[in-house]
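Because discrete structure vocabularies remain unfamiliar, it helps to consider an illustrative case, giving the amino acid sequence and backbone structure tokens:
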Amino acid sequence: MRTTTPLCLILVRPNGMSTALALKHLATINRDLRVEQIRPLMFAVARHFSVKEAKKAFRLFVYWSVRFLIVGGRGGLLDRNYSLRAQEVSKQTIKNAEQLTAALDIIPSDAIFEAVFSEVRIAQDFIARYLLRALEMKAKGDTEPENIPNDEENVINVEHILPEHPANNWPGIEPEAASALYKRLGNMVLMQSSKNSLIGNSSFSEKKKVLKESAFILTSEVGKESKWEAKQIKERQAKLAKLAVQTWPIS
């Protein structure tokens, strides 16, 4: 029976690309984004690119994976393009990250990525947490914002500012509006788990006291708002979208 060498072993073996940074990118793709379509291309690059070019490519893999997650992977088209590019890398018709970027011409442009990001709804908390954590790190000037630490899952989680069922604490917010706004990324912030459990379905006037004191830049900014309705959520998400283009660039 044929066996496949795990990608992590290819990255650390003596004739492989042996780099802690590449392993961080691999962990981000597997653990935080949980995408699989790009794996054939990752294997090909790990085996055939020089160490220098592989480092560049693995960082790009994170950027591209986020863009496709937000915009949509276009089904079989993405699978086919990753497979074809993997074959070209294996045949060494593509030898570096620049050539690979040029060949993969289906990557969502900055304009498309920003436009879709500004309207996106995120159903999975693990994706929302990754996106917000990376954006926070970018806002703080981190040089590798796309790679988030793996020691905070039980300490930091995602708070939906406008709750799914606002009830009497949110007068003027209709149930239909709350349902539409609840999963907008602009309605989500990072919170320490202990504080997150305290504010729950509280009114915005109560939540903003906690939000304003947060050590997270993007969370504390929400605490400066006088109210939290559709307009504020839309404006915040538009700002996050502009930051997203810088956090996960094409190249």
Summary: Confidence is low (pLDDT under 50) at residues 1-5, 12-18. The first strand starts at residue 156 and ends at 160.
